[in-house]
Amino acid sequence: MTPELIARYDQRVPRYTSYPPAPHFKPEVAAATYAAWLSTLSPQATVSLYLHVPFCKELCLYCGCHTTVARSYRPVAAYVDCLEREIALVAELLPSRMGVTHIHWDGGTPTILSPEDLRRISSALGVVFDVRPGAEIALEIDPRAITQEHVRALAESGLNRASLGVQDFDPKVQETIKRVQSFERTRQVASWLREAGVSGINLDLMYGLPYQTVESVVRSVKLALQLDPDRIALFGYAHVPWMKRHQALLPEDALPDSIARVKQRDAAAATLIDAGYVAIGVDHFAKPIDPLAARQGEGRLHRNFQGYTTDDAPALIGFGTSAIGSLPQGYVQNAPTTAAYLAAVMDGRLPTIRGVALTDEDRLRRTIIERLMCDFSVDLNQVGLAHATTAPDFSRELQAIDDLAQEGLVTRDGLAVSVPEDSRALVRNVCAVFDQYLNTVAARYSQVV
User: Fold this and answer.
1) Is 383 helix (H, G, I), strand (E, B) or coil?
2) Which residues hold S-adenosyl-L-methionine 2 (predicted)?
3) Is 60 annotated as a binding residue?
4) Is the pTM of this model over 0.90?
């Protein structure tokens, strides 16, 4: 890709972790709708669970998550009480003690919970749900905010995959983004996890942060490789100060431009591939024996709110502030502020405040976008047949695809669309062609690269 092409197409479009994207959720789909959807789940179906913990001990300036700083444990303890109550509220609506194949804890910092409270919530889930043998139980970890007792509690609760947040090991970058974390500390936590039997170790890295260079990003990648992770997520920093005001404290003149970001991304990716990792979608890398790599090879990789996943359960149930759930009928989201979430749950109500009911065309377009994000190719005719429906008239979309093909971003053979390897950083632009909702509301997204 030429610098001119990168600059022209480094637009702000959705990350496509859902379709329709979250800015298109409506208040008409709220608690009553969610309750009805939960009650109609098939008793034989499996589900996945997502738990959001919206607290941190300090705020990292790059953060785009729904989180606040907790100066004491009191608000965290109150939140744990409500999280347990929300689990019970949902359980009353389910048709059975449903099987669970994936559990994912995110935040914030989930390990801001005490070891006892981590055990308590895990136990509450085990009472309500049938957590299947072999289920993936994953948790996002800030290595600065975890103890060996936390690790023991998590291991006893079945944790088998941990994602360690790193972002960057360069001291100047760390000081700028207010996340000072030594390599030795990160290595110590990884060692604790492995000693406790947590075999799946992921690392999260970033490019596009202030003062990062190609050389510094590659150094961070090489240090990360010394920890022998199973997976590495390589995310581009999303600078959205209109949504996250603390990001305005970062020095904007030190942020790399689009071309520099692509060079950082490409150099980091090349380093990982040279080390034997397989590129998974646009921002993940995994060892060849990892289930993500196997699923990608089979064309059965999925993408959800946590990124690329092997999870193919028909429903994802979210718990906690701002948590998004996905059910066969559509998406739902909990109240985005902890105060509103606590008020609803303490009143005995589901805290769901918005969502969207999917149409047949939404489902078809969602599949098209997911396959592009996962496989970098899609056959529109095959997708239409799989959905047992006549595909919509894609003449407008195909014209747009042909325009992108003139730029070298895609190739098209009839109704088969593919993204060449050297253009995959811009795959979200290709997905946006099939997005009927884009530009229908005043939403601002992160840049493509």
Assistant:
1) helix
2) 62-64, 108-109, 167, 179, 204, 238
3) yes
4) yes
Q: Is 324 annotated as a binding residue?
A: yes
- SS3 letters for 113-139? CCHHHHHHHHHHHHHHCEEEEEEEEEE
Residue 265 annotated as lining a ligand binding site? no
Tell me if 50 is assigned to a ligand binding site. yes
Query: Could you give all domains of the chain from N- to C-terminal order, each with its CATH number?
Result: 1-23+360-449 (1.10.10.920), 41-328 (3.80.30.20)
Cβ burial 19-49 (10 Å sphere, 16+ → b, else e): bbbbebbeeebbbebbbebbeebeeeebbbb
Q: What are phi and psi of 374, to 5 degrees?
A: -95, -40
Question: CA neighbours within 13 Å on the CB side: how many for 43?
Answer: 3
Q: What is the token pair recorded at 383?
A: 């997708």
User: Taking CA 130 as the corner, what is the angle to CA 357 and CA 31, rounded to the nearest 5 degrees?
Assistant: 30
Is 19 labelled a binding residue? no
Q: Is 62 annotated as a binding residue?
A: yes
Q: Is 204 annotated as a binding residue?
A: yes
pLDDT in tens, 308-361: 999 999 999 999 999 999 999 999 999 999 999 999 999 999 999 999 999 999
User: Is 126 annotated among the ligand-binding residues?
Assistant: no
